[in-house]
Amino acid sequence: MESLLQQINDHKTAITAFTANNAEDVEQFRIKWLGTKGLVKAIMGEMRNVPNDQKKAFGQILNEFKLFAEARFEALQAQFEGANTADLGHGSQDQSLPGDPISVGSRHPLTLVRNEMVAIFKRLGFSVAEGPEIEDDWHNFGAMNLPEDHPARDMQDTFYIKKPDNGNGPTWLLRTHTSSVQARVMETQKPPIRVICPGRVYRNETISARAHCFFHQVEGLYIDENVSFADLKQTLYFFVQEMFGKDVKVRFRPSYFPFTEPSAEMDISCLICQGKGCNICKHTGWVEILGSGMVHPKVLENFGIDSNKYTGFAFGMGVERITQLKYQVNDLRLYSQNDVRFLKQFTGVV
Fold it and tell me: Is 260 strand, coil or helix?
């Protein structure tokens, strides 16, 4: 064991003689002596070769050697830290300087517009209703007057998740519109009903500047006694003027939707070109922003609502389209690419 004791003394001499000029030298000392493959750990491993009757005494020697090396490392570390702020301007860092600023995020433009849309309709007495994005065929299609063989189903390319085996059980899909939320509201509530349904929807479409496989909608439903098409028009007039200003022009065009009758699409004068004609409005001066109509009696009857006593209107619009007009964004893909250059433009927008 004398050779091992001599080796420990030699190590102590080397440790004492070690000097450090910078933090890197201190780190090299730690790795060489106190690291997982360092000399101190190697010496401690020699304990297995010490006879049993000498283990206690030799253990104390090894422990003292380890503490000696650790004390030297701490002294070197303190020496360097003490000199760290005394050598400013020569590569050292001034720890008193403030850190790098943390960038503050902002709300997504779609969130800003959706919140504004919801706030406008809340002032008219509408409440917010939400539902699942994974929906069954009945609430998404069947309850909305679209049976399985209805040709209007071809208007929407659907992401199907699971179809029933041997015709047993429901078909599950990603909802193609938030009308499914309206269905669930009519299923659980009785008139009067006045709700808006914001949410994300999915359709199997090719992604381009004008279309995406997922987007966002805000749909509205009002059912009560003596609800007329005039009520629908005045509601939408109020929304458009609150969202885009009093000078915007509005027109209604006849249309077709399976769940409303009569149905109409609503256009506003193009805010990009001020009605002069551009690629956004296809050089017509008008931009279609929503579909609407009186709730089909069959839809009311599907949920046990007396269509002879109650009438109602429904409407639906894409949040992306409204955002496009409000902020003049001409590419739908920008909303989902998380490009910081794009999103930072909305910092501070309330």
Answer: strand
- For residue 152, what pLDDT band results from cuts at 50, 70 and 90? low
In three-state secondary structure terms, 88 is strand
- Predicted local distance difference test score (pLDDT) of residue 86: 47
Residue carrying structure tokens 């609407």:
292
Q: Which long-range contacts (CB under 8 A, 24 or more apart) does 268-276 make?
A: 268/240, 268/244, 268/325, 270/325, 271/244, 271/325, 271/326, 271/328, 272/325, 272/328, 275/249
**HEC states along 201-255?**
EECCCCCCCCCCCEEEEEEEEEEECCCCHHHHHHHHHHHHHHHHCCCCCEEEEEE
Looking at CATH, the fold of the domain delimited by 109-346 is given as BirA Bifunctional Protein; domain 2 (3.30.930)
Q: Residue 155's pLDDT is what?
A: 61
For β-strands 127-128 and 193-202, DSSP reports them as parallel
Per-domain boundaries in the chain = 2-87, 109-346
85 band by pLDDT with thresholds 50, 70 and 90:
very low
pLDDT at 270: 86
* Strand (E) or helix (H) holding 320: helix 319-327
Q: What is the pLDDT of residue 156?
A: 65
Closest CA to 44 of 75, 68, 26: 68
